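Following up on my earlier thread - several people asked me to post the actual chain instead of describing it. Fair enough. Here it is, all 157 residues.
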Amino acid sequence: MVSKNPKKLLIVKKKIVNILYKKFVGLLNKAGFKSKAKNILNFALLNASKKLKITPKILLLNIFLKLNTYLEIKKFFLRKRVVFVPFYVTSYNRRTFLIVKWILCASNMNLQRVSFSKKLSLEFISLLTNKNSKSINFKLINIKQALKNRSNIHYRW
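Reply from S.P.:
Thanks for posting it. Predicted structure:
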């Protein structure tokens, strides 16, 4: 991703933001109501961007950079036992799916009696202000499991 050409770097950043936005809308989509999913995400992004005083695109890019991971743990069933195997994540699509999954799980764990878009914006704010964010905890758990199960790498083939 490191490039000396600023135009190429700008194109990569736009690609990341577009993929992340589409993944959020796709996973928030309930029973085919895409407009509701877009409204939830747009409200959360606008609310968080007002509090943090940055644009929603820069907010999405910062979220990607904060939660970006190159490792993933997959579960295999092998000879009557469960084996966790770390894998490299190479595509932007899979990385953004993991990021969105961690953020949505963290938002669902929030027990406050407010709307989901408010929970989502609170998670964005806590993620970018370095407060105790549950989505960062999910990333750290992923890294710890990858280190703990690195002896199972030979099961990838």
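The beta strands are 71-78, 81-88. That should answer part of your original question.
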